[in-house]
C-alpha cells in the first residue's frame, strides 16, 4: 500500500532527474496493476505494468532453476534498439520498472534504482489481492 503519495511521486521524479536518459518510471504490483508513474503516458504505463507482471513471473521461474537460489527475481534488464528496460523487485509484491534511452549509464541506473528501492521500500509494498480485492 502506498503511503504519503506526494512524497513518493517526488522520489520517482528525483530518479528521473538524477538519470536524464529516463523516459518513464512505473511502480506496479505483482499482478500488473500500476501503482504510480512518472513520465510518459498513463495508458502506456498501464500497458507496461501489465507486461511486467508476465516478465517478473518468467524471471522467477528461471531463478527457481538456479541451484542454491531462493527463486526470487531481483533485477531484469532488457536491451532493445533505442533503449534499455529495467525491472527491479521493490518490496513484497511490488516492482519498479524504468524505460531509458540507449545512452543511459547502466551502472548508474542500477545504483539509483536500488537506492530508491531502499529509501521507499516500505511504501512499495503491495498487499495481495483475492477476487480483485486487497486482502
Automatic annotation (TrEMBL):
It comes from the Bacteria. Pfam families: Robl_LC7. Residues 9-100 form the Roadblock/LAMTOR2 domain. InterPro entries: Mycobact_SerProt_Inhib_Rv3364c, Roadblock/LAMTOR2_dom. This is Dynein regulation protein LC7.
